[in-house]
Amino acid sequence: MLIGSKLPPAHVDKTYFNLGRSAFAYLIEEIIKPKKVYLPAFTCWSLVSTMQKRFSDIELEFYGVEKDLKCNYPKTIEKGEVLVFIHFFGHENKQSLPEKKGGIILEDISHALASNIEYRGDYIFGSLRKSMKVADGGIIINHFFNPIYEKGNNLDSWLRYESTDWKDMREAENMIDRHWDIRDISSQSLEVFLTTNMDLVKNQRYKNEKYLYNNTNVGEPLLNFSENEAPLVHNRIIETQEKRDHIRKELAKNGIFTSIHWPTHEAVRKYSNYFPDILFLENHIISIPVSQDFNLNDMEYISKTINNII
User: From 4, 56, 114, 123, which residue has the greatest number of CB atoms within 10 Å?
Assistant: First the structure.
């Protein structure tokens, strides 16, 4: 045994990045190096664009997702193949995964950071920005890696911290869409993440979503969350696209800003005959904020406003 003041640094079973897509790209590029990647046809654009821009030499295939978010996985994942599965909107995906015949399963927990779920992937990664008030942040859990981060000026994070309105925030998002590097998380974002009480986040998000679930009379809720889950948003399915768009406009007039999860990526849209449920969700879904920054009074205002829209 050696005793001295110069000791090797300790390791933890997490690796941090500036973005969720950076964590994903690091796994694909440096750790797994697959020949083929399966993504859900129902997903945000970040993983699809990452594959297109950074891994155009790797075969990309989509698997179907039905209206109730049931996934139509391939039966097996062969050697050299990777399948990414998602816990949509914080709801635990308990569906049986494909049989692995040498392949790798990646678990995206971006929506479920605060949910109490059972991890099942070979590698587990996610974005911190989906549910946390941080300017940047991505994570791989249960694994220590020692990346040599790429050079970058971190301007998108800088702009978020300096932003005074949503225009600046939107431009920061546009900057990422135009270009991003695999970098480390900023100190501010890391401190916020490490000092956040995840149980409080989960409990408030659950209460907020459950209030909208029980007190909104327009459309139908997409998911029914349990107390162990932290909803990312409250999604409702509206009868027609026209009615959905009208509701969004009326809510915006009252200071309530909603989103659509998700506009269908062009790479998926060209296979629209195979994924009709994806287009249905795009045209009928409305996503309402249930962040831990809001309380039940805010949810009451939202539900009353929606219920009064004709």
Answer: 114
Tell me, yes or no, whether 173 and 210 share the same domain.
no
Q: Cα–Cα distance between 81 and 34 in angstroms, integer?
A: 6
C-alpha distances in angstroms, 101 versus 74, 97, 291?
12, 12, 40
Consecutive H or E run containing 210: helix 198-215
* Same domain (yes/no): 173, 261: no
Q: Report d(CA 85, CA 98) in Å as an integer.
A: 11
Q: What is the mean pLDDT of each run of 10 residues along the chain (310 residues)?
A: 80 96 98 98 94 96 96 98 98 97 98 95 96 95 96 90 88 90 96 96 98 97 97 98 97 96 91 88 97 97 94
Note the pTM of the prediction, 2 decimals: 0.95
Domain extent, residue 60, equals 14-194
9, part of any domain: no
Beta bridge partner(s), residue 268: none
Query: Cα(286)–Cα(236) distance, rounded to whole angstroms?
Result: 5
DSSP string computed for 230-263: --SEEEEE-S-HHHHHHHHHHHHHTT---B-S-P
Which runs of consecutive H residues, i.e. helices, occur in 88-186? 155-162, 166-178
Mark whether 221 and 188 lie in a shared domain. Answer: no
Domain count, the chain: 2
